[in-house]
Design goal:
22 helices, 0% strand, Methane Monooxygenase Hydroxylase, Chain G, domain 1, mainly alpha, elongated, 2 domains
Length: 556
């Protein structure tokens, strides 16, 4: 065979250029349309058809079903999509990914698009050097598109010609004439190639090249396409490993959907492929007919599969829920949304951080409720030890969460991101640190209560009433803060209310301090009891300051 090691490296390099161009184009498209994709998913209804159409639209835009599926898994992990909604979007993603095959078939083999690729890169240069992030992303999109087709052109030229190397066809013919055995063998080959390259689109391009060069026949190519549909599910399953239970269920549903789709197609494989070939040659046959037939096979397979499986969404949901049980380790003290792996663009990765910050704030509210109960209990209350232990657990979890969110946000900032996104990241880091300050204040109140109990002191009914008055104001402050975190913005009306409560807390702290001094002086209150009491009041005031700093400095 006249195929040297250098030819092999050229082939690998061509494939690498194709993959790099596809990745660059996909990431640029996600940057350009990231906010819009997020808005589409956020406004998506529970209608199954709308879910499928959403998956089709997003995958057609970003040209990667794997990226869409990983995105969906992330959104499920962040609680933005339910399991049933995610299944319908994933179904649509399978249809949307067929656009790539048509693009390659209609454009990549009909004429040499590489001839206009270099001028297109030249046109993209002013965009690449623009200071505006959106224009820069458009430039990267144009370069990615050009590199994709330059890679495809080199790939076509690097594959050995059958006429010059008849041994290749002779070798493959040994395995392509075994009936269903050949179908199963090349189905496995398609799956393995896709798992290795982590891109069904790249494997599809290789399959089209092999079919175009005459290496394989149409049935073998169709079998490889079926395998690619199974192999592409691996990416989402890998991304879901550290994620929540529902996210792993969404990834598994993708695998089940594609595997069961391949199973029914295997039963009707030869009638189905003959029908596709007849549909393509119904018109006038051409040199590109096999390529169009394979693209049509890819589209029809996924389209029919969705039309059948869309009625079984609830069944899939039940199956994956049964197979993947709820994590026993999931607790109120652990991370809920940050999975540890970033999406391909910061705009989409930020969603998990936002949801984790929301959960962090909610858990800090629970911590305050625990502290409030503990602070006013008598020193001999049998629940004291349990309260103190829970407060320590809350504090330890807060420290870990603060560090995890900060590390995740810094990881997003280290990836290629827009200046606006970097500004949002800085704000979120600041907000997270202030939530940790709130948790520290709660912890300090709890420690003061522990010291009081160790000294076998009890607050007077008058002190308890004053503490509850302060706690009521702080609780109202925290509730307003949590509402702002959930919406990721604060209205002027809410800001004014927070400032009003902050003023009330400051005035009450001063009044209680004067009152406590007078009580110590006239002998109605011990100095030790007054010290513990005022330490708690001071921490409440410090807690309110942290909330006010975030809201008045417009970090939301």
């Amino acid at each position: 065979m006249n195929f040297s090691f250098l030819d092999f490296l050229n082939l690998c390099g061509s494939l690498g250029l194709f993959l790099f161009g596809m990745t660059m184009m996909s990431e640029a498209l996600q940057k350009v349309a990231g906010d819009k994709m997020r808005a589409i998913l956020a406004s998506m209804t529970k209608n199954r058809v709308m879910g499928v159409l959403t998956g089709v639209a997003i995958t057609s835009i970003i040209q990667s079903s794997s990226a869409t599926t990983v995105m969906v898994v992330s959104f499920v992990n962040a609680g933005l999509l339910s399991l049933a909604e995610s299944i319908t979007v994933i179904m649509g993603a399978n249809i949307g990914t067929t656009v790539t095959a048509w693009l390659v078939s209609l454009v990549g083999f009909k004429f040499s698009i590489a001839a206009i690729a270099i001028p297109l890169i030249g046109i993209s240069m002013p965009f690449l050097f623009s200071k505006r992030d959106k224009r820069k992303s458009i430039g990267q999109l144009m370069v990615g598109f050009s590199l994709l087709f330059i890679g495809l052109e080199y790939l076509k030229n690097s594959v050995p010609d059958i006429n010059s190397n008849p041994q290749v066809l002779e070798f493959l013919s040994q395995y392509s004439d075994m009936g269903y055995g050949s179908v199963l063998l090349f189905l496995l080959v398609g799956s393995i190639l896709t798992i290795i390259m982590q891109s069904s689109s790249a494997t599809m391009a290789i399959t089209l090249v092999m079919l175009n060069q005459g290496w394989i026949n149409f049935e073998v190519a169709a079998a490889m396409v079926m395998g690619e549909n199974i192999g592409t599910t691996i990416t989402a399953n890998i991304a879901a490993i550290p994620a929540s239970t529902n996210a792993r269920r969404a990834a598994l549903s993708h695998t089940l959907f594609n595997v069961l789709g391949v199973v029914w197609l295997l039963i009707v494989f030869y009638p189905f492929t003959r029908f596709v070939q007849w549909a393509v040659t119904w018109g006038e046959a051409s040199a590109n007919t096999p390529l169009y037939a394979l693209s049509l096979f890819h589209t029809m397979f996924n389209l029919v599969n969705v039309c059948i499986m869309i009625w079984l969404v609830k069944v899939y949901e039940k199956i994956v829920t049964t197979l993947i049980k709820d994590k026993k380790t999931d607790s109120e003290f652990g991370l809920q949304f940050i999975s540890g792996s970033l999406l391909s663009t910061g705009e989409l990765s930020l969603i998990e951080a936002e949801k984790e910050i929301e959960h962090f704030t909610q858990r800090t509210q629970l911590m305050f409720e625990e502290v409030r109960k503990y602070a006013v209990q008598k020193h001999n209350n049998k629940n004291n030890e349990g309260c103190a232990e829970r407060i320590e657990q809350f504090e330890e979890a807060s420290d870990k969460t603060d560090l995890a969110i900060a590390n995740y946000l810094h990881a997003i900032a280290d990836s290629p991101t827009s200046s606006e996104l970097k500004r949002n990241i800085r704000n979120y880091v600041y907000v997270t640190s202030e939530i940790e300050t709130i948790a520290d204040c709660c912890h300090n109140i709890g420690r003061t209560a522990t010291r009081k109990n160790s000294s076998k002191l009890n607050f007077t009914p008058d002190q308890i009433a004053d503490l509850n008055q302060m706690f009521d104001l702080v609780e109202a402050h925290l509730n307003l803060f949590y509402k702002s975190i959930k919406k990721l913005q604060i209205t002027e009306e809410c800001r004014a209310e927070i400032l009003r409560i902050e003023n009330d807390i400051n005035n009450l702290r001063y009044a209680l301090k004067m009152k406590s001094i007078d009580q110590v002086n006239n002998g109605t209150l011990t100095y030790a009891s007054s010290t513990h009491f005022m330490d708690m009041i001071e921490e409440c005031e410090r807690l309110a300051d942290a909330i006010t700093k975030v809201t008045t400095e417009k970090k939301l």
